[in-house]
Design a protein that fits this description.
Layout: E1 2-5, E2 7-8, E3 17-19, H1 22-28, E4 35-38, H2 42-53, E5 59-63, E6 72-76, E7 81-86, E8 94-96, H3 119-130, E9 137-141, H4 150-162, E10 167-171, H5 180-187, E11 194-199, H6 205-212, H7 217-230, E12 234-240, H8 243-247, H9 249-259, E13 265-269, H10 276-279, H11 281-284, H12 292-304, E14 309-312, E15 327-328, E16 336-337, E17 354-355
Parallel strand pairs: 3-4, 4-5, 8-9, 9-10, 10-11, 11-12, 12-13, 13-14, 14-15
Antiparallel strand pairs: 1-7, 2-5, 3-6, 6-7, 16-17
Helix pairs in contact: 3-4, 9-12
The structure holds iron/sulfur cluster.
The site of iron/sulfur cluster has 16 residues, from loops.
Length: 375
């Protein structure tokens, strides 16, 4: 989530606002959506305040250089900032719904906390209500969203109701779908268009449970995957490419091909250099160039079983050319950057680039611009 410096209407409180022009307010005002209008000067502010004084109490103004029309924001006036929870012009959209988790993964990018944070899903539902133009996809992430139980279903229903054509990408460890009560609450009668993104780090419980630091997780996740299949849900399996996973990647791919052929696709993901990954650098900080034979071998096995697969978060110059066609430009806009060395790279427009915080962590490889054309 972006935080941007802003001055807002006096007395404003934290609640969702849709950023619009004054003409859009006049043309499309409704009582159950909050509108905020970017202003340039005092005259603009007083026009908004006059309208508010006449009883239009869901209208406010904002002065901020980085605000964009279509943004859904939450003002934090005491800090002189607003949280931009949704940016219309982004390619990737994500709703962060809890920081609690029942796993403790070695490379977790968002280390979990224990505090009750039900307000996050309340705000996520408000964001969904305030989005004007339905996005193609919207991600749901945490923490572990299934810990929200029925409240997660409320969010899925709200997205479906307001944005029926939007695909929901729900990132979950799937463990709680081993509980009948949770299955009933979340999956019974579910008609929202959901893709379930479920991490699986090994072909055996010892490896998976070690990576997620939770005994019993492998069995629970497998049970969850079978439940999702039973309910006809679309599943993307995810493996983060840290050392123990790469060492047994061929076994994992064989396991998937033999036992989980119903999955829609498998995503092999470069590790994000943040959170617990920084504390477990010895197994997370690696150069994918040193693992090309494992990556090409994994792709070969998945191809043999007819399992669709892709590589995420990896710069193209970290991969062999044979894998470029399956590399996805996947890092969310707000956390993606390129290195100085990327200037002039012929593949820049299709490359994932780097996580913005790579400087605090590490480079995923030695960045080398790609030039294929004959000079
Ligand atoms: S040089 Fe930069 S843009 Fe080119 S492949 Fe490497 S990371 Fe991507």
């Amino acid at each position: 989530m972006r935080k941007i410096a802003a001055v807002t209407s006096p007395g404003i409180q934290r609640r969702a606002y849709r950023t619009v022009t004054i003409d859009q307010v006049i043309a499309g005002w409704v009582p159950d959506i909050n509108f905020i209008v970017p202003i340039c000067d005092e005259a603009d502010a007083s026009q908004i305040e006059q309208l508010a004084a006449r009883g239009i109490n869901n209208l406010a103004w904002i002065k901020a250089s980085e605000i964009e029309l279509g943004d859904i924001i939450f003002p934090v006036p005491e800090k002189g900032i607003v949280d931009v929870s949704y940016r219309c012009s982004d390619t990737h959209h994500t709703l962060f719904v809890t920081n609690r988790c029942n796993s403790n993964c070695l490379m977790c990018s968002q280390p979990p906390t224990k505090e009750e944070d039900g307000w996050l899903v309340d705000e996520a539902i408000e964001v969904v209500r305030h989005i004007e133009h339905s996005p193609q996809n919207i991600g749901i992430t945490g923490g572990e969203p299934l810990l929200l139980n029925a409240r997660l279903r409320d969010l899925l229903n709200e997205i479906e109701r307001r944005h029926p054509a939007t695909q929901i990408d729900l990132l979950t460890n799937g463990r709680r779908l081993s509980e009948q009560r949770v299955v009933g609450n979340i999956l019974d009668g579910l008609t929202a268009n959901v893709a379930w993104l479920v991490p699986l780090y090994g072909h055996a419980h010892m490896l998976h449970d070690f990576v997620v630091q939770s005994p019993g997780a492998f069995e629970e996740t497998l049970e969850g995957l079978l439940r999702l299949q039973q309910y006809g849900q679309q599943i993307q399996l995810r493996a983060v490419l840290i050392e123990p996973v790469l060492e047994h990647l061929d076994d994992l791919c064989e396991f998937i091909g033999r036992n989980l052929p119903f999955v829609h696709e498998v995503a092999l993901m470069a590790c994000e250099p943040i959170g617990f990954a920084l504390a477990n650098k010895e197994i997370c900080d690696l150069d994918l160039k040193d693992w090309w034979s494992q990556l090409t071998g994994a792709s070969r096995i998945l191809r043999r079983y007819g399992v669709r697969h892709l590589i995420m978060n990896a710069p193209l110059c970290a991969l062999p050319e044979s894998l470029w066609p399956i590399a996805s430009r996947s890092i969310s806009d707000w956390k993606q950057v390129y290195a100085g060395e990327c200037e002039g790279c012929e593949l820049k427009s299709s490359c994932s680039g780097l996580f913005a915080w790579h400087e605090r962590g590490w480079m995923p490889t030695r960045i080398m611009k790609i030039k294929r054309s004959v000079e």
